Amino acid sequence: MQRVSWKFVTGTWVVVMGAVTVFSFRHSSGIVDAATDAQKASYTSWTTYGGSNSDAQYTALKQIDRSNVGQIQQVWFYPSGNNGFRYGSNPLVIDGVMFVYGKNNDVAALEATTGKVVWIHETHNPRLISHRGMAYWESKDRTDRRLIFHMNNELHEIDARTGKDVESFGKNGAVDLREGLGRVPSSIRQIESGTPGRVFENLYITGSATGEEYESPPGDLRAFDVVTGKLVWQFHTVPHPGEMGYDTWPKEAYKYVGGVNNWGEFSIDEKRGIAYFPLGAPTYDFYGADRLGANLFSDCILALDVRTGKYLWHFQSTHHDLWDYDLMTGPKLMTIQHDGKRVDVVVQAGKNGFVYVLDRTNGKPIWPIEERPVPKSDVPGEESWPTQPFPTHVPPFARQKFTADMVDPYIADPKEREAMKKQVEAARQEGIYTPPSLGTTMETPGNNGGANWGSGAVDPATGTFYVVSKDAPSLLHLEAKPPRRQVPGPPETQGLVIYMQNCQACHGAERKGQPPAIPSLENVIARPGGERVRQAVHNGMAPMPAFPDLSDPDIDHLIAYLTAPEKANVSPDVLARIMAPPATTPKLGPGGERYWTGYGYMNSSEGLPAIAPPWSSLTAYDMNKGDIKWKIPLGEVTETVAKGIRNTGSFWPRGGAVVTASGLIIVGTKSDAKLHIYDKDTGKQISEIQMPAGPEGIPTVYEVNGREYIAMSARPNSDRTPVGDQAQAAVVNQNPAEVMEQKQTQGYYVYALPEKTAKR
Q1: Can you tell me the distance from the alpha carbon of 203 to that of 270, in angstroms, rounded to the nearest whole number?
Q2: How far is residue 702's CA from residue 658's CA, in Å, rounded to a whole number?
């Protein structure tokens, strides 16, 4: 590998190359030994989110295997407090030290063998943080070691040995990520991603989370100098004049269209110096009359020169996306046998249930992908793209239709079951790419279905690709979004109007929601100032997007209404006028009125999916053949098991699996609060661990002093996971002051074989 330094010379960045050795380290009786590049590439460390820059989610460690995995036990637990990470976090382990987010999203360094605190860096409970993980960089001589993370729309670095801010980085220790995007920085409510970027040589490369609404910021890809924080390169994902793809948008689109962002993982071919970015849909997700065209580089696998940001190739999986079919699962770098040759490929799973297999060097499909005609939109002003790409060889991993005979047979109320069947039958459904309509349109697997962040993993030894997926049909119904109209009255009354215009489509007029996917808001104000609501509206809370167009006073009024809805007083005729659509066809472009729909999640009154199980699956592909080897329901639901209903799959897992060289797949499922261990060759479950909270995220697998460990983040879900004393019973090696709540269950659970067994 090479070290890169950059100099600014007469308006041009000049790269200066020099040799460098990259190290990984292990603690051994107090002595730190450096590993070689080859050892690092052999997947024996966990110094990067997902385990490696190739995003393999694979470990070559073999101590825990098929024969002994049933003996692993919890060896320590570190509580992160109820204000800690959201939706799973993937710890890093360097030099026998684990780095995590703790209480109030403070950064904590822990002894990786005991969980004891080494240091804590206080972040003062930030509004935003890259909660899924962080990145690590070290200088050639290891005198400079840094942790890198996003916080409050800024890029931050701290010393990995002390936890102190690196004041020389950026401006006073931070880089404002809102700058340089062609928008007024103060107008950008959110730009940082919850997923950490990646380090390559002296570069930190990152995507973004832009929000899902009209006029969200663009999702430019950027690389920063790790030492100084200076911007090294920037790729416009919504092309500017003169750039490739500009002609696939309206002329002024780059000034107002947002999204087209990488908010999940991406991967790097370190040997070739190529980064592969899976990109999301443009905003607004479901109506695109103000962005007519194919819309490059939305929904693309985009290959860039990692050192310069120069375009290399792209493949677009959905043209003019109207379904929110982001590509977000990390592209997996594999070497397969194809037509008698070894071929380096990139494998991409989509939210639409398809798997795309492309030559890593040029983006050409390994098996044919056909452009096929798809239904046309009937929405005024909309021009859906006439064709979409369909893989012809590799079968999909998720169901792509939902018919009446597929309604969940376990729905307890027969009347509700029949009503659900009629609802499904009445919806427009003409295939996977049926565009949203002014009537009701079925979307399957759904905008929250298919593969998502963390969903993929590979076994490089066998050429097997594993994908965690969800079947989550959605009913979309476009309507003209009412213009923002003021209403006189107290804050509660104004908050009611804001609720009706922004929240009611999903949470319902009575605020009951569709638990657990869409929670009830009847008693949501649990903390002073409505902080829970404020954070959800600002940041989003999957599957709910952020609402960047709501101002702080808007949110104050919304909180006032949710706190005391009985104080809202608006006559029915006034409400009707407020909620009335525009008298004319919605205007297009920035600032105009547009069409809008809720996300349309389909759940029964029991809070479970309307479609028959399995609701989530784990699928194994032999990528040498492009065939499915096996497919199983992934986990279960505690309540349905109590009724004798098994093999339903979890509802719904967040995160993904890790594959081990010893023959295991390790993956957590939230709705049964279990860590599952499967045989990687057959899909047969070998063992499972009942956890005190619902596991989320990607497991971390590491070794210290010859002992292998598995770390998993988890947090309570009052609807679906056990809480309480059983969690505390498992807490070991903690000082009393570190156990922040009597029944704390959110945090990091670490497992290993008994010490005597591990040392054999």
Answers
A1: 13
A2: 12
